[in-house]
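Weekly sync notes, structure subgroup
Attendees: PM, AL, DS (notes)

Item 1: joint prediction request from the bench team. They want all two components modeled as one assembly rather than separately. Inputs as received:
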Amino acid sequence: MLGMLRRLLSRRMRRRQGSGQAETSSVEGRISSKLPVNRERIKAAFGNSADLVLRNLQAGAQGKISALVVHMDGLVDKRQVAEAVIEQITDIDLKWDNPRQAYADLKVRLLSASGVEEVDSLDKFITHVAGGHSGVLIDGVEKGLVCDTRGWEQRGIDEPTTEATVRGPKEGFVEALRTNTSLLRRRIMGSQLWIEEMRIGRISRTRVAIAHIAGVANDKIVQEVRDRLRRIDVDAIHESGNIEEYIEDAPFSLFPTTLRTERPDKVTGALLEGRVAILTDGTPFVLIVPATFTMFLTSTEDYYERYFIGSALRLLRVASFFISLTLPSLYVAVTTFHQEMLPTPLVLSIAAQREGIPFPAVIEALLMEFVFETLREAGVRLPRVVGQAVSIIGALVIGDAAIRAGLASPAMIMVVAFTGIASFATPVFSLAIGVRLLRFLMTVLAGALGLFGIVAGMFALLIHLTCLRSFGVPFLEPLAPIVFSDLKDALLRAPWWALRTRPQFTGKKAPTRQAPGLRPRPPSPEEEEVHHLVGEEGGK
Amino acid sequence: MSKVEGGKIPGRQLMAVLVLSRVVPMTVAFPMMTELQVPQDAWIASLLGTLLSIPFVLLVVRLGLRFPDKTIIEYSELLLGKYLGKLVGLILIWYWISVVADVARELGEAYTIAIMPETPILVFMTVTGFLAANAARDGLEVVGRMGENGVWVVLFFLIVMFVLPYDEMRFKNLAPVLARGVRPLAAPTGTVVSFFLQFIVLGMVLPYLNRPKDAARYSVYAVLASGLLMTWLTVVLVAVFGPTVSHLAMPAFSLSRMISIADFLERIEAITMGAWTLSSAIKLALFLWASAVGLAQVFGVSRFQPLVYPLGAIAIAFGILFFESNLDLQRFLQFKNLGVYSLMVTLGTMGVLYLAALLRGRLPLGPGVRR
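Output from the run, pasted for the record:
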């Protein structure tokens, strides 16, 4: 079905290619040996921006050597610039008389920032300055030095707001890329955690990092991630959502094929399964690929609580996934077409409730669903202060007034409300929203064709999901195709000591993750005797 | 050699799809039951039919394995020459299309008779046909995976259906055994075999197996599994309904009507109907896929996908046109019609192909032929 649409669109896009691409100005050429020239070119490149700081210094014997320190106000740690850069250059004891000698000394010895790099193209120099480095230029030398003096205001590490758990770490990612990588690094201290960085966006020059565990992640997948990210050629990346849309496998699907999360522990868990994480500067949401369906019904807490509880919670989530997809449509189908399926008293009671209602059940369901979705959306967008008003009105509208006004039956209200709650039980919002849209479709189908409509809808959905792939991994894996060894961590979670192998598709390179036979056992009788004796001796 | 279909499936999925496609006729209409003269012995007919079908399936597999990575359509051309081979291919494709037409009509009839009498039959047939064509268009891998998932759902419902009416079962109904001798069993056994002969579709699937060596094992498992399910179902049906069972239009459906769960879910037949729809759709998908790939190979088309929707539409139209009424359909499903037709087409083509293979012996048959 989607194939046709896809082909049509791609044809249209091909036709459009080649017309107007965004203008991006970058500074050409190498750094000149004349300081005033460089100064003017830098100034021109930034269009005389207010936050650009250009500081002229005189150094060396009798101040013969002139130097220029460039940095962006607000992106640098001012104390560090003063101590590590400016003080070093202007040290009165230094008696340089040759600019080259001064440059060499500064480069290897004097600049005491943690990272000092030599650049010779002006473009690179400016990029570094724009990223918070301090640039040093010396008159008479056609190279520049950039020192890592980055330091800016950022939000502190906080509990992730969209993925709260009862048990487990309370740290969430923040907007700064380096902080985020450090959160990963702190959890995986082994050097196998490899993080590579690139910049995407012609104007925004956003830093994007790819993290994977060397020796575990499938090289092909890592390379595929790199390739897809390199393909992106746009003005700006505002959030990882932009990247998601450029790299996902099924751009026309309602289902997301990349998983996004705010939790570092979720990312490290995925990395150790052989997956790849994409971190974007400026957003706390990290993308995990390849993502499979069961990951969207998984919360990190499943792995921290004992496995019975983890499994039970997961089953509950699976159930609520199906409820949020089909409950209103089932209600509509049963009350409209298949009344015989319910016991007589219930049918009579529903019929009595629906007595004065002017619409057929489908319209009633769609209407109430619409009201509910509107309330939910309003609740998210409203400022906190007025939030309460919405909940009060919502409770009144959806709960009581609709029934009294004769617009909906109490049974329908219950169905809609329960469906709404069930849809909140899906841990990942991007999946939940797709399901919420599909629910409307299913309701219409059920209104038209009864249970046959629901079955047809589910069948179509199943076809679609079976076709989906995320970076080469079937989306429904391990459910279709059935991979028996991976079922241990899909709808149920086996105990940790039984999770010996990594998922087949992503973790084939290092198939096992723990030693065999880790199941805890009570001590054997002989051992117990020893313990006993030891205990007695201790007593004496 | 141009590859019309690129996917590969494991033997497990082949088995699932075969079981599903065999389960369809016995859950929806169960034609074997309607022509029983001695219902008490139905289970014998079903077992016998199952066992008789195994050699045929092995024959298909054996011939197929002589031509690894060639479908039955391709190697019939190798064996019989260009024109005769194409003719045999077209006969098989016609057969598969007629199976699709027949299954779609059965499903539609079941819906209009039992669940939603006011909706036109065309709706059920087109919707199911469209979905099946959609799955078939995505290739064998998708059909296989859906089969693998669907089989669990269908099995679950079947087993629920077999176990829950326990209260109603009177196993005395099964006596006496063979009261009227073996003779009356001939027709029902023939019907069972004729449905198993649809497994000739294996000839299309074999070259797309991950490990062709599994083919024989898994297809025999499929025959046995579905045969046992069928035998179990006949036993339950006879135990519940007694000798009157052969007068029921849709015995399995009537069985699901007997079920009541905790006095709350009174009649879950609509739910079992859902499971049947699923299995029918997967069967349709498999046969549509086979006929589309086959047709592409007969006429040397490089892609089978464009053929799927037209073939599906044609098959659904046939499903409407072939039969005037449900009665007509039931009559067609009897051994003397469908059974003989199936036997002629499948055994005939397999016989001709096997003979040709024997006569050609070890002659070099062209590229791609080993062993």
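Discussion: Confidence is low (pLDDT under 50) at residues 16-25 of chain A.
Action: AL to compare against the crosslinking data before next sync.
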